[in-house]
C-alpha cells in the first residue's frame, strides 16, 4: 500500500516544538534537563501517546516510544534522534529525526500495516555537549562506552553533578539499568539534516551515510604568572592568553596540513581569567574539537598539536595541560540498513548519494550495539547550529517517507 506522509502535520509540529525554547525566534536554545527541555519532552510524550505508543524513560532520561509488533519475541527496530539544542541554534537539528520518526510510524499506522518486529522511537538525552561537556550522553550510556562511574563524575557548567541535575529534573532510577545489550535492537536508523552543503550542491534530496567521522574533544588549560598590565614589562611576561593564541593557530595549521580535507579541528570556547582590562591573563581554558574519518590521522594531528603546544609552553614559561573529554572511533554504517535505505529510495524513485557524516550523532554510539544507518536530507547552504538553519517541508517529507519505507521493510 502506498505511504503518504502528512507533510503539513510534521512541519506544524516542528514549529510547535521550536516555540519551546529559551531563545528569541528564529533561534532555538534547549539545554538538556532545563525546564524548557522538560517541557519539550512532555510535549513529545503527549504526541507519542496520541499515536498509541507505549512511552517509558530510562534513568538517564532517554525516552522510548514503542509500537508493539506481532512477534513480541523479536528484537525491535529503532529510530530516533535528539531534541536538545545548543545556544542560538536552529529548529531542525535532531528534531527532524525525532518528529520524522514519529510521523514515519503514524504513516505506517495509517496504511493499516502491523509490524512483526516492534518499532521503537528513541529520544536520546543530551546529544549536545553544551551542559556536561560531552556529547551523546544518553546513547553513550545505552551502548556502555560511558560507564556509570564516569557518568557520575560529570559536572555541568554550573558545577552541579549529574546526580544533582537528574534529581532536580525528577529523573530517577539506577544508572546501571540504562545499558542495552548488543542485539537488543535488530537495527537502528536515524534521519537527520546533513549539517553540510553537499546534498544541496548535488541538487539531491537524500544522502545515505556510509560512515560517521570520529570525534575527539579536549580541555586545554594554560597558566602563567599573570600580574599588573602596567607594572610588568613585556620581557618578563608569561601571558597565558598569548600562549593560547599561538596554540589556537597551531590547531588550525595542524588540521590544514594533515593531507586530507576530512580532518577538522576547532577551538570553540576560550575562557580568560581574571578577564580584567588591566590584568595579564594568568589562566586560559580552551576547548578543542578534532574530527576525522580516519582514526590514525586524527591521532597524528592530535600529537602534532600537543607537541607544538609544549614548545609554546617552554618558550613562554606558561604551563599547558591537556585533559581528554572524549576520543571516539568512527562508525561504519551497516549494509543491513544502508541497503534497505537504497531499496526504499528505489521504491519511490528518489535519487540519493552515499556520503560521510562529518557531524557526530547518536548513531555513532548506536552502531556499537546494533546494525545502524543514517539518512540525510539537505539543509539550506549547509547551515546548522545557527538560527537560520532550514530544511524544506518537501525534503523533510521525502526523508520521512524513505524512513517509513525502511522501517516497514526492517520490521517485517
Ligand atoms: O557536534 C556535533 O557533531 C553534533 O551536532 N552534536
Ligand atoms: Mn547538533
Ligand atoms: Mn544533531
What do you see in this structure?
It is a single chain. Helix 1 (7-18) runs antiparallel to helix 3 and helix 1 packs across helix 12 (393-410). The model has no long low-confidence stretch (mean pLDDT 97). Strand 2 (54-57) and strand 3 form a beta hairpin. The strands form three sheets. Strands 2, 3, 4, 6, 7, 8, 13, 14 and 15 form a nine-stranded mixed beta sheet that branches. The chain is globular, with a radius of gyration of 23 Å. The two termini are 14 Å apart. It has two domains: 7-213 and 330-410, Aminopeptidase; 215-327, Alpha-Beta Plaits. It has 412 residues and is of the alpha/beta class. 35% of the residues lie in helices and 23% in strands. The site of one manganese (II) ion has 6 residues, from loops.
List the helices and strands and how they pair.
Elements: H1 7-18, E1 28-30, H2 35-50, E2 54-57, E3 63-67, E4 77-81, E5 85-89, H3 95-110, E6 119-123, H4 137-143, H5 148-152, H6 162-168, E7 187-193, H7 198-202, E8 206-212, E9 214-223, H8 240-256, E10 264-273, E11 283-292, H9 295-316, E12 319-327, E13 331-332, H10 335-347, E14 352-357, H11 362-366, E15 372-377, H12 393-410
* N- and C-termini, Cα separation: 14 Å
Oligomer: single chain
Radius of gyration: 23 Å
> What is the CATH third-level topology name of the largest domain?
Aminopeptidase
Total number of β-strand segments?
15
CATH architecture of the largest domain: 3-Layer(aba) Sandwich
Tally of individual domains: 2
Helix count, DSSP H or I runs of 4 or more residues: 12
**CATH level 1 name of the largest domain:** Alpha Beta
What is the H-and-E element order? HEHEEEEHEHHHEHEEHEEHEEHEHEH
Low-pLDDT residue intervals, each spanning 5 or more residues: none
The major beta sheet can be summarized as: 9 strands, mixed
Mean pLDDT: 97
CATH homologous superfamily title of the largest domain: Zn peptidases
The set of bound ligands, ions and cofactors reads:
(2S)-amino(hydroxy)ethanoic acid, manganese (II) ion
Shape: globular
Q: Which secondary-structure class do the elements indicate?
A: alpha/beta
Strand percentage lies at 15-25%
Percent in helix: 25-40%
Amino acid at each position: 500500500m502506498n505511504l503518504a506522509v502528512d507533510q503539513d502535520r510534521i512541519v506544524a509540529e516542528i514549529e510547535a516544538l521550536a516555540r519551546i525554547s529559551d531563545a528569541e525566534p528564529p533561534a532555538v536554545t534547549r539545554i538538556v534537563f532545563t525546564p524548557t527541555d522538560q517541557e519539550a519532552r512532555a510535549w513529545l510524550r503527549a504526541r507519542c501517546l496520541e499515536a498509541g505508543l507505549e512511552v517509558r524513560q530510562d534513568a538517564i532520561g532517554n525516552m522510548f516510544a514503542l509500537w508493539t509488533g506481532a512477534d513480541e519475541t523479536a528484537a525491535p527496530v529503532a529510530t530516533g534522534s535528539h531534541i536538545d539544542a545548543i545556544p542560538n541554534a536552529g529548529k531542525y537539528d535532531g528534531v527532524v529525526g525525532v518528529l520524522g520518526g514519529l510521523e514515519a510510524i503514524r504513516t505506517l499506522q495509517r496504511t493499516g500495516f502491523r509490524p512483526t518486529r516492534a518499532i521503537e522511537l528513541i529520544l536520546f538525552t543530551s546529544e549536545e555537549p553544551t551542559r556536561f561537556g560531552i556529547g551523546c550522553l544518553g546513547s553513550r550510556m545505552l551502548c556502555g562506552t560511558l560507564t556509570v562511574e564516569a557518568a557520575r563524575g560529570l559536572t555541568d557548567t554550573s558545577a552541579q553533578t549529574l546526580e544533582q541535575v537528574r534529581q532536580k529534573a525528577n529523573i530517577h532510577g539506577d544508572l546501571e539499568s540504562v545499558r542495552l545489550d548488543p542485539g537488543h535492537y535488530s537495527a537502528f536508523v536515524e534521519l537527520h539534516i546533513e549539517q553540510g552543503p553537499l546534498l544541496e550542491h548535488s541538487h539531491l534530496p537524500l544522502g545515505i551515510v556510509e560512515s560517521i567521522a570520529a570525534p575527539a574533544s579536549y580541555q586545554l588549560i594554560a597558566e602563567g604568572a599573570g600580574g599588573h598590565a602596567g607594572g610588568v614589562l613585556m620581557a618578563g611576561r608569561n601571558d597565558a592568553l598569548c600562549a593560547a593564541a599561538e596554540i589556537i593557530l597551531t590547531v588550525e595549521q595542524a588540521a590544514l596540513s594533515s593531507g586530507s580535507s576530512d580532518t577538522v579541528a576547532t577551538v570553540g570556547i576560550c575562557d580568560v581569567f581574571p578577564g580584567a582590562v588591566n590584568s595579564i591573563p594568568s589562566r586560559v581554558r580552551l576547548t578543542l574539537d578534532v574530527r576525522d574519518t580516519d582514526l590514525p590521522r586524527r591521532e597524528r594531528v592530535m600529537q602534532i598539536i600537543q607537541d607544538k603546544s609544549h614548545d609554546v609552553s617552554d618558550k613562554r614559561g606558561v604551563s599547558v595541560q591537556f585533559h581528554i573529554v572524549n576520543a571516539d572511533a568512527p562508525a561504519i554504517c551497516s549494509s543491513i540498513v544502508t541497503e534497505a535505505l537504497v531499496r526504499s529510495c528505489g521504491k519511490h524513485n528518489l535519487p540519493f548519494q552515499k556520503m560521510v557524516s562529518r557531524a557526530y550523532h547518536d548513531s555513532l554510539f548506536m552502531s556499537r550495539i546494533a546494525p545502524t544507518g543514517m539518512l540525510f536530507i539537505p539543509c539550506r547552504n549547509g547551515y546548522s547550529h545557527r538560527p537560520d538553519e532550514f530544511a524544506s517541508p518537501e525534503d523533510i517529507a521525502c526523508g520521512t517517507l524513505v524512513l517509513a519505507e525502511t522501517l516497514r521493510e526492517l520490521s517485517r
